[in-house]
Amino acid sequence: VQHDRRTNPRAKANPLSALTFIWTVPIFWEGYKKDLLVDDLFKPLKEHTSSYLGNKLEKAWEGELKRCKGKKKNPSFLRCIVKVFGPKIMLLAIVAFISEIGLRIAQPLLLGGLISFFTPGSKMTLNEAYIWALGVVLCSGFNVLFMHPYMMAVMHIGMKTRVAACSLVYRKALRLSKVSLGQTTVGQIVNLLSNDVNRFDIAFIFLQYLWIGPLQTCIVTYLMWLQVGPAAVIGLVTLFIFIPLQAWLGKKSSSLRMKTAIRTDERVRLMNEIINGIQVIKMYTWEKPFSYLVSLARRKEIGVIKKSSYIRGVMMSYIVFHTRAAIFFTILSHVLFGNGITAEKVFVLTSFYNTLRQTMTVFFPQGIQQVAECLISVKRLQKFLLYEESTVASPRDEKVNGKVNLENNGIANLLYTHITNNFEKSGIVAKNACAKWQPDATDYCLNNISCEVVPGQLTVVIGPVGSGKTSFFHALLQELPLSSGSISIAGTISYASQEPWLFHGSVRQNILFGEPYIKEKYRKVVKVCALRTDFEQLPYGDKTIVGERGISLSGGQRARINLARAVYKETDIYLLDDPLSAVDTHVGKHLFEDCIQGYLRHKSVILITHQLQYLEHVDQIILLESGSLKAKGTYYELQNSGLDFTKLLTIKEEEPEEAKEISSNRKLGSRQSSMNSVNSSIYDDSFSQNPIEVGEEMSKGSVKAAVYKHYCVSGGGCCLAIFVLFMFILSQAFASGGDYWITFWVNLEEHVYVNGVYNATITANNPSSASYPFIVSRDICIYVYSGLTVLTILATLFRSFLFFLMCMTASVNLHDHMFTSISRATMWFFNNNSSGRILNRFSKDMGAIDELLPVAMMDVLQIGITLLAIIIVVASINVWLLIPTVCVGILFYFLRLFYIATSRSVKRLEGVTRSPVFSHLNASLQGLTTIRAFNAQEILVKEFDNHQDLHSSAWFLFIGTSRSFGFWLDVVCLIYICFVTLSFLFLGGSSFGGNVGLAISQAIGLTGMFQWGMRQSTELENQMTSVERVLEYSRLESEPPLESPPDKKPRTTWPEEGKLQFLNTHLRYSPTDPWVLKNLNFVIQPKEKVGIVGRTGAGKSSLISALFRLSEIDGSILIDGIDCASVGLHELRSKISIIPQEPVLFSGTMRKNLDPFDEHNDEVLWNALDEVELRDVVNELSNGLQAQISEGGANLSVGQRQLVCLARAIIRNNKILVLDEATANVDPQTDFFIQDTKGKRNENINTWTRQCW
């Protein structure tokens, strides 16, 4: 991915450039001129490449596992993280100490020295005052210089930990045993990679404050005691009394986080199933029950998020009133103890409290909460890393020569072995092998299997549905651990799975799958797998990109590419799991004769098939039934043994003679045609044009005002939004009023009162008293101050609750609109957008809207209004200070413009480069058996690392640019502090000490806060891109209406007969594509049984798409004289039953899978199961109809899933029944039985079978 990327500018930066972030300037310039694209990203730094970090952490984890094995202890993932990243963190602690303990504590003392210059009767000279002022400014300066590179380093470590953890999780996912896969779900693993590991990015920022906070508190307490004595303790108690409450809220928040994670897992899992099975859901008209399930899952999730949001609201309200309450109690108690107050004391205290507030009430509790949440994520990761692994020999294991058959505790640890030079025969020997999928299951899925396969021998495994054929292969591949007995394998293995698995890439990449490209061999394999014609049909030959799950190909093409991958790999033993079922008879014959019997004739081949016509030509037949070996031998041996093997064969003999004749002619023709010039352009490496992928939508430019408006409207309307804003302004007015009142009071104390009592005669002679508009007694000062403080607390809490309520409402509505839009989207949308991309909207983007967006928005509102208040307060003290304020404001505005252009593209790039990471994980988990059989783990880990590196490159750019922005903003703030501090000395005149203190302490407060506010405003805009992305998916092109208008509703009994007419029907998959079906005209009379045949890719499935109106149609299709286009989709689709090509089941109960609307009673369902002979299977599952079906129906065999689909069709009992190669994955007996059921039940039913020829 990165061979042609530019070197990262950080790699070449000198120390000064790194310290002041000058290395980011060219990036900003580039981002300002144009929107940055994926091609503009740099190479990742070596220290954060995924493979390097993954190896480092994996080594530590393996060391930890070894260490704990002997001691019978639980391994700790946390210990590994500390081991790998701890030393760096220790180093950063020193920087944090200098900044937080040294500089932050010195600044208030220096400020006190400066204020004392303005106290009446001060003996300080002007020069001394300048030295104090310089000290104040330098403290801020050094802090800026230390803090930003420190934060950059901390975020970099957080990122490295995340990357390492992701790499480790992916490697582990490739090693999960089938049992472990049953315990976890794809949704859960995606959640680990999308949400849990992100905790590292946040937790490390706050980690140091866990020890800095308490240390700083002790030092500050001592210094404040020197100022105001015991009153300091009362103030501190006020400050810290909230900390246990915050800690409790933090703990509550992390337990809610755990609950949220579980509920989000559940919702993402459900979405994953829906997206993967969307076509079936549409054809069955099941959108409503699934919408209900999603809304239920979402309600549960939001219920928890709401609670944690309110907690967050309370925590964020503290920022406004916490320090103010502490200062209030300190001053109040100090005055009540009978002491006077001076400006110096008040503002030194205020500065100390501000320092403590940031450390102890923002970072410390946040640190506890984030570190606690991070530890929960570490636990979740650790639990995942400790799942049982598959016994499949990893490609890194030592390859052993000679035959290996290790037995320990009755479990055979199988290792692949190469054939040694003395030509020891390759092959497989199984002795009394027993195995079961669940360790606690009572029944064995393989029982006492003994057989032998020798080189050059073709062995066929046959047996009814669910007899354990695929389990036998899984045992050979070591996916299924043996309980007893042994299997010895000499030689290497290649495998073609029953359900074709294709990953996102070109057809050629899918066939080569990491093997070197040898032109002649490749052509030969393509020829024997009957793929040449397909390559000619595909738009870019074998360079055509196939989507995830191979969406743009027909079932037969996918099966043959899957087979070609297995055949291309040069090995000794080939396991082929039913490759002939998805292809038509001619192609099947070609595959059997040219590929299995021809190309692989010198190899050991084991073939699972239901095509019994080939049995006469094989060397050995193994017949399995209910997991036991019923018989083995040649065709004639078995025939003579008189087993009910013959029952399986009866169907074969009924095959009409003509079919055989056609196939023999076809064989001749196909041989001749394949002799013709092979030098076709389809293999040309210089294909004129490379395929264009449908990229992920990436919006450009700033987030439009309409998006904000839409968010506010979703949150409860504009009136509520305006009221919330008013509450924010009101609470800030109370808070700033309190600040101003304390200054007013201090000035009264210093200039008007004598010993705390108002004295009129002295006041008359005091010139400064004239500058007061009104003078009140000390008691009134106390009452007003108390009133303002209480009002601040109440108003702040109220506005927080209101604000989060609004955000949650918006969250719910946005999710619901997007889900409705997705469930109504056309099939074209799903075929052109990978499930990872759609899931990203539901997991990552919804997560951001639920949890991150409200916080960023609240920060922006809170800080924006506080800024306004500070400017008003400072201007009221000295109007001339408005001039530097305006200049700084303009400078900030331009800096922000410059930053936000780049930041926005970088943040979007980060989102777009994250999707492939999820898609890759998703695809890998679906093809796990194939990947392991091909020993392709390393290639896939490399590919995953490439995706991660691309994301890391974008993320590093993101943290680099945002830190750089913060640094330069703070430099501007520093200049502003300089102006404000020195202005009082330059301008001279008789300033009040209280005014000087207020102005300088507010300006210092400005630094950190202003750059945080600016960054949060860009963060808000970044998070709003999530809203934008969700809104994009809320406006998808929708299918026609589900229900017809009342005047056009068809009769309830329609269709009475089931007569089908196609009139000039055309179909295409998108408006820009060519027509796939062209001018079809035919009629199917009622009760007719019609077979639709045609070569793979001829448009048979497209015909079904037309009938169900899954794509754009021109012309008309009539059912009983009514044009389908005039009928609502639900009314149309609910009247047609379908048994799809790939049986899709959903997790949930068996009952929900058969009848999600609960329209029928149990008796009807049992009868249907009886008819498909699944009653016994369902009875054996615990809870019968209420038995849980696992994700994708994994706890049933493919054939059984097909029968469940047949049972669904029986229950619906419609006039039109469509079978889309429904019997492809079942044995002949079941096939015969399906046809029979169809025949018996369908006396009055129009049946439409799509079969290959």
Automatic annotation (TrEMBL):
Gene Ontology, cellular component aspect: membrane
Coarse class of the protein's main subcellular location: membrane
Localization of this protein: Membrane
Protein topology in the membrane: Multi-pass membrane protein
TM region(s), chain numbering: 130-152, 202-225, 231-249, 711-735, 782-805, 852-873, 879-899, 965-986
Stretch list, region Disordered: 1036-1055
Biased composition (Basic and acidic residues): 1045-1055
Residue stretches making up the ABC transmembrane type-1 domain: 91-372, 722-1022
Pfam families: ABC_membrane, ABC_tran
Superkingdom field: Eukaryota
Molecular function via GO: ABC-type transporter activity; ATP binding; ATP hydrolysis activity
Listed CDD domains: ABC_6TM_MRP4_D1_like (cd18593), ABCC_MRP_domain1 (cd03250), ABCC_MRP_domain2 (cd03244)
Keyword terms: ATP-binding, Membrane, Nucleotide-binding, Transmembrane, Transmembrane helix, Transport
Residue stretches making up the ABC transporter domain: 428-651
Coiled-coil ranges per UniProt: none
SMART domains: AAA
Name of the protein described by the UniProt record: Putative abc transporter c family member
Organism (species): Panstrongylus lignarius
